[in-house]
Amino acid sequence: MALRPLISLALALALALTACAGADDGADVREIGPTDGTGTGTATGTGTGTGTGTGTGTAPAGTEAACNPVNPDLEDRATSTVALSAQDYRYDPAEVEVAAGTITFEVANDGTEPHELAFLPGGGEVPFTADDEPDEEALEEAGAFELEAFGPGQTCSATYELEPGTYTMFCLVENAEGVTHYQLGMEGTLVVS
Questions:
Q1: How far is CA 73 from CA 92, 121, 145, 157, in A?
Q2: Is the pTM here over 0.85, yes or no?
Q3: What is the tens place of the pLDDT at every residue in 87-96?
């Protein structure tokens, strides 16, 4: 009987040492096997089968960007309302003039892709980085603001209190190739007098 506790202790010690010797905390990459990119393998198998299939589907509601109105609480105080159509890859109208004050923009997405309506105070070119990406830091420093992207067939509103000046209107949504709509010509000018 005195031998049983001793054997149990020896087994527990052996298991503990084995577990610790192979421990991997995930902090380092381990290489297993050859590192020259070569290897061999064989496999065999048999099988038979037949089948047919058909299917139809539609995208569930909400897969497109939903409208997220900006400052809806200011709409009843708006001194002007500007109707814009966001199309693939332009705004209609592209040139807008309005008196300073509280302005509501009613934007209809008449295109086939999501669009946004962003504004760059002071006008001019939208800044991009050396990697040809929108320069979000420079846009923030310039005070740019936006009505976030929303899907085709939707109308969304944004209300802002605007001071006199020139603003560049633009869309930084990217198409399937990763090119922004702005780079494809989706820009305009807002003059607030």
A1: 26, 23, 17, 11
A2: no
A3: 999 999 999 9
